[in-house]
Design goal:
The chain has 8 helices and 36 strands. The protein has 497 residues and is mainly β.
Amino acid sequence: MRCLLFVLAAVAAIACCPASIRAATTGDVAAQTLLEKHRAFVGWYLGDGTIRTLRITGDVTDEHGKKTSTFVRLYAGLLYNTSYTDLERGGITERTGFTGNLFWATDFNGFTTPIYGDYAKFLASFTVLFQEGTTELRATSREPKTVDGKRVEVVRVTMENADPIDLYVDPSNGAYVQAVIDPDGSYETTYHILSYQDVLPGKKMIASYRVDDDKPVHAATKFEPNVEVSGGDLHPPAATASWTFGKGTPFPFTMTHERMLVDATINGVKGRFILDTGASTVYLDDHFADRAGLESLKGSITSYSLYGEDQNRIRKVKSMTFGDATLQNALVFSHDFQKEDYRGLDAKGYDGLIGFDLFAGAIVKLNVYDSTMAILDPATDISSENGLPIFVDISQGIPTIPMTLNKTIVVNGMLDTGSPGLLLFGPDLIHKHHLGTVGGCTNIDSLAIGPIVYTGEAACEYGMTSDYMLLGFDFLKHFDFVFDYPHGRMLIRPNKN
């Protein structure tokens, strides 16, 4: 939480008193000169009173010019509420925002969860970049680069406890032609800036861009400066799905040698599912979804897992009951798992994966050793629960917590009950810290969650990025959990396993 508060303080400082920050910058005259040229090019800077509020409406088009998404960004300084509506996935909408106290994200069922950790830093930097706050930051010159055959100057700007941004500046006019947020970091993202547009006479903003190597173009179609914005406009909307909670009575789930299995009733039809904290939503087998009479919506969605890329249908569930709690009016995805094996998931015919949307709007107690779970109202007081309290990053749909590898290496541990295998880490982590492997695998010295330390665990190389590790069933079965996604926290305690 402390890290998040520092990010918020830095963001607020830029919004409220940019002149004092600019006066405090020292050192690199060449970098400051380039930023001043950019400020003259756009004709304003965040906090100068020119653009106090803003609504931006826009589209995302693919390489063939087809409109695939629409977006609306509503700003009051650095406070914002952004929505993206996917036209190819039945018009489902996802949102992110910053209220001045908290970064948040809302999934397509409308469940809102707070954003902590590295992604909060990224969002702070993204907002500063697109709201013309970069010229007020501390800056240093980097080596010049070539973009599209033209030499550009590179300036790195930094903000306390937010990600650095490398700005690629056209020295002839001060325009940014490219920006890289979190260079060499976990969230490194390159924005190829294609155009600027006047928001007010002589006051420009970025109007279109591409992201990384992707072909789609994000383009603003309308700027509305200084519109009326209320506090409610900047808060997330009410969820479209909803829970009906019982007394939170524990009910059994099944532990196998590599899976946690939970029974549920969907639209009145009973099924058995893999409990998968690594799944970004609920994925049902097509045959079960048809049996349960789930409505199919227009469009499809691509998902990625350890097993490859899959195309999924979008379905609507009337009711989904676990124990004495029922989730209603929820969107889920479905896939023909029998295409990979005629016997379906794990060759055992399981009916799907229960992931993020089980956890997003509820408190879920998972007593692994006793093989019981309970689903509680988010308003439930869990202060009497035993366990190590941890703020958890769920911005990628997987609970991710800070951990320490081999006593000194800080890593982000992704807790994936649906991964049946060993610990996984990526080549970047292996090479950076000289972790010797044989056949891509090794026994690590130690892995610590706060004061909880495990030794001698086996780990293997997989395509994880940067400082991320994936912790699967073999590791997680040693713990009991209280997942509280609505408040971005969890409790973890070792069990007798």
